[in-house]
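ASSEMBLY PREDICTION REQUEST
Request ID: AP-0331
Submitted by: J.K., bench scientist
Number of chains: two
Total residues: 1488
Priority: normal
Notes: Please return the full assembly, not individual chains.
Input sequences:
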Amino acid sequence: MKRLYSIFIFLLVYSTNFAQYVEYVNPFIGSSNFGTTNPGALLPRGMVSVTPFNVSGSDINSFDKDSRWWSTPYSSDNTYLTGFSHVNLSGVGCPDLGVIILMPTTGPVKADPKEYGSIMGEQNAKPGYYQTQLKKYNIKAEVSATQRTGISRYTFPKGKSNILLNLGLGLTNETGASLRIVNNQEIEGSRMTGSFCYNDGSERLVYFVARFNKPASEFGAWKKMPEMQAEAAWSKTSGKYKYYKNFMQTMNGRDIGTYFTFNTEANETIIVEVGVSYVSIENARLNLEAESNHFDFEKTKLEASEDWNQILSRIKVEGGTDDQKRIFYTALYHTQIHPNIINDVNGQYPAMESFEIKESKDCNRYTVFSLWDTYRNYHPLMALIYPNEQLDMVRSMIDMYKESGWLPKWELNSRETHVMEGDPAIPVIVDTYMRGLKDFDVETAYEAMYKSATTEGSKNKLRPDIDHYLSHGYVPLQEEFDNSVSHALEYYIADWNLAQFAKDLGKTNDYKKFLKQSQGYKSYFDKETGLLRPKLENGQFLKNFNPDEGENFAPSPGFHEGTAWQYAFCVPHDIKGLSKLMGGNKSFINKLQSVFDNNKFDMANEPDIHYPYLFNFVKGEEWRSQKAVRNLINTYYKNSPDGIPGNDDCGTLSAWLIYSMMGFYPVCPGNPDYALVSPVFDKITIQLDPNYYSGDKFEIVNHKANTTDYLIHKIMWNDRKYDSYFINHNTITKGGKLEFFLKK
Amino acid sequence: MKRLYSIFIFLLVYSTNFAQYVEYVNPFIGSSNFGTTNPGALLPRGMVSVTPFNVSGSDINSFDKDSRWWSTPYSSDNTYLTGFSHVNLSGVGCPDLGVIILMPTTGPVKADPKEYGSIMGEQNAKPGYYQTQLKKYNIKAEVSATQRTGISRYTFPKGKSNILLNLGLGLTNETGASLRIVNNQEIEGSRMTGSFCYNDGSERLVYFVARFNKPASEFGAWKKMPEMQAEAAWSKTSGKYKYYKNFMQTMNGRDIGTYFTFNTEANETIIVEVGVSYVSIENARLNLEAESNHFDFEKTKLEASEDWNQILSRIKVEGGTDDQKRIFYTALYHTQIHPNIINDVNGQYPAMESFEIKESKDCNRYTVFSLWDTYRNYHPLMALIYPNEQLDMVRSMIDMYKESGWLPKWELNSRETHVMEGDPAIPVIVDTYMRGLKDFDVETAYEAMYKSATTEGSKNKLRPDIDHYLSHGYVPLQEEFDNSVSHALEYYIADWNLAQFAKDLGKTNDYKKFLKQSQGYKSYFDKETGLLRPKLENGQFLKNFNPDEGENFAPSPGFHEGTAWQYAFCVPHDIKGLSKLMGGNKSFINKLQSVFDNNKFDMANEPDIHYPYLFNFVKGEEWRSQKAVRNLINTYYKNSPDGIPGNDDCGTLSAWLIYSMMGFYPVCPGNPDYALVSPVFDKITIQLDPNYYSGDKFEIVNHKANTTDYLIHKIMWNDRKYDSYFINHNTITKGGKLEFFLKK
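STATUS: Completed
Returned structure:
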């Protein structure tokens, strides 16, 4: 009995030491309600994710990728699966990637997803692992991943079993693929991706090598043939899928794939490993050989779980309900998907806006920067919890400037997609610097920022309307839906950051100039409505102004993805100045409160995401922030597929939740002050990275009588009463204990 | 004045020594009336031909490749040009190749052939050179070739000039291409070909490297995007050509291409050279570097003309009209297009029915074997005039057996296309052997023939209905249009050849067996009609037999591409036996004469192509052959685009003309006897290859009073009276003079 007992003890220790954090992750959160996350298996910031692809091929699905604007390879509302894609975007609002699709089937080979797809049975997902049952075939499909490889284990019934690799189907709207069957256990090839947000001009190939743990008894390629005209009378394959048995030259085309067929015993498993690279097939093979566990699925799955657990363990929460822990750790999980690595194991990666190959040394090259979203809270959070990764992201951004001449805005696989507006790399880099993380090429970073802040519009890739901005102090409305106010608001916050950076670097003149520019928002202030209002080139405000226009992502004159209400407080760098404009604190508070009271707040998008914390700027009104934040958490975040209020935006909505549940929030990037509210949990311990911060941990203790209490009675910092509702990043990273005492 | 005079003399000498033969070639002959030859520029048996592609993209064309069964990249009846294709088939009845299309344009780049095509102005073609004017753009386009490269010289007007490389458009019905812009002067890529005769299963890639003599000022790729559904609302390129400026990764897809743009002065020429390979891009580059004259168009054109002149000079004709010389030398030119080389300059070629790469040593590897056509007269002619090439063709065929296990039937680029029927490699190889050309792997050749003549049907790639053939002595009709009689007739002639081969190799039992089999045709003889008649499995003849069914390529029970009349005499190995069956010489002559008198003869296809010579088998009736042959020449062959009666069938109809105009014809392949008729010319001198034949030349002198005389009065051989209307190949290749004395 003794031996069994010690195993039991070990498992207990094991589960608390290793499994406890990953157990709180529910990868299905966000996979409905346009959260656009998915339950695919991946490693933290992995290049590869192996994701069930269920948004095509059948009317029984609730959503089809071709029937509307659609941006995710997976929906919890759908049931018809057509395979597992190996490169995917998570939490974005536009379609791309979702390619290199593997699918197990049985019986005669069919290449048409409409024919070969299957209803999914019960699904299970944990960090680094996903599993479902294909009801049509009685196949169990399990997937896991390393950073640059995917692994799939299919348990087949007895008979003729097939593994399809479909390079035609994809979430991306780009087309074109190439494949070569290397032998009866290996395929190599490439797939075009790009046209993110239906924009052309950001195309790039992704390369792969797929290997099977067993030789196929039969194999071949397929291609969908075009419809012929008169000649259809003689061709057997006009408009049909044509199969090329044993074809071993390169197959190029639009809708192509391969099949590998095996004679399986009952419950026989076949394992496929897929290495991926954005550089070359050779590198995909190198990645596969370096990272794969040689078809050891269990080892890969265990290592993935361990990696995730380690990453998630940087924050330990105690107290709170199970659901609260689940939405918290799932949010943390969602912050670790993008930006993801793009460099191969040998360090090679494709240079920004180029087809050259570069090599990264000593650090990772990151990709998928949704900066208009993430500059607001995501990067501040990364700087606090994962400073090493955040610094690599900043270095990646500066290298992008070196390679292409411009900092990124919405970067995808070393291509600029030009999505959304502004100059958001500036606040990201300056914010990181202001949080004490300065180990990057500061001079080049300043040069890059200065360039986009001063280059004339016709040559300015980031600020095309800078000429008006500089001459008028604002961007005038010139076309009905030109998003002019949104553009300018982004420039103000960027210029404010640039000013802070200049100041720190001793560039006093630049400091003054950019600080002044950052105040230009005031010219948009319209006394009549008390809001920022679109302005014409002649200095007059736009007539027929409706501050509610633009709800639910409808177009709105002057504003991008939002109403005038949702942009009215979008000057986080000068809340006090805005408050004055609005007629002083009382008027400011009333207006802000009315946003919440009148249902004008949008939790699903970024421009107003800091609003609930702005009450903290007026002494005595902080309770409103505490209330608003707690209300929003309780209303919009859930332990269920619809548990994220909208597109997660590469972790931005998740970062908001993480901060908000911990009780502090970075209102203005570039300003390391956090606004404080009451935490959801009883205790939160953040492990600080000793390579970057002098403290070893930042503890938050929340003293309360009831789980639903949220109003703060008293705050203490390191056992002394703390009088402010803000605390600085550079204070907490020295280590210490922040205590909240809540009202009963 | 002396110097000018000597130049004049030189030009005279030059023109008689070099230019005389090529001057008589009219490459437009056969480019209408379904001759399916084309005026493209190529070298003798070159891998590359640069051919105007004018069968797509406009309703103003008389024929469109997509509107009917269509098998040629060019028609003299069309005027709308969409480029120049670099690999092409000549004189075939099915579509394939016609890809790697270059097109010069001016102004804005357009990728759609419907938009960028141009009306052609005056055209000029000589062996190895073609030229036309593109009226839409005022561009002069000239093309020439080496064996494995094409060269194009475009003379542009002043302005923005483009060279398009279209990999979407093609005559082949296969799809899929890949390209990469290497730099501003070079493109590499590949294009899928195959589906010859609308049959799937014979796919192979062709690779290329294209180089410009000047850097482009702008370049990019294009791809036709699929039509989107709901998403078309957001995409600017749904269903359209999408342009990828500066794209330098591999572009894969169905309808793709590149544009290279140059700022040209008035009359500036841009030259493009394209190297081709069926092995790899590397080999295409190697071929380009080894063969090209580094953008020296004039040198390439001159060398091409010289090569052609040398090849054509093997036969010198004197007398006759200019038109007669033109149809003669053009026919000889048309025999030198296919089979063409497929090996690269380094000897590498793709193995038969495989994707392995082999290397040929000391000889060329040939491809494009339309053997059901060419075994009848083409290969005997090649054995006589070009024995070195004919031996390499035989060696290529035997190597195909070694690589794939079967001799070829209709081989295209190392793939068997399974077009037409029978076992036609046997008569080709045996015929070559019987003409004294034995320097090939005779043992393996016999092994290969024996295999197809004895392997059971289910495993027999060449004779699928061999089981019935062996058990019944004939192939019974089992489906309405199963071509059963045609199949069997091919097996008889093959078995007769195999018998002769066995006899010579001392395999007496095999000789007897196969000779007996070759007599099986007699069981098809129907006394009622005096014709070969389809027979059922139970031994009864097909009821409702209409011997005229099958005219003009209509389907016919038992017969493939012909009527019972056109197959009635298709036992060239046993004309005497057939004559007996038909009731003796008189009855035989009457029946044969009735074919011509009643317009039942088809000059446009092969089964009856030897008929006009069969009168020679009955003493005293030879005048009928003389008359019939001369009538057919005069009726069907012309110095104009419609100057070939039907598909040239890779030189078969041309070989018929060459023999017929020279006055002799190989009635039965495998039997080196030629039937004699009167020549068209006054004198014909065939240079015999001293490496293979003991004679240095075979002269034919035709003594006649009037140009229209054709009836033979007397024949002399080496100054002695010759009593036969047949002469043996092995007699004339010892050298000598054959004299015809015609009746006035």
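REVIEWER COMMENTS: Chain A has a mean pLDDT of 96.
SIGN-OFF: pending second reviewer
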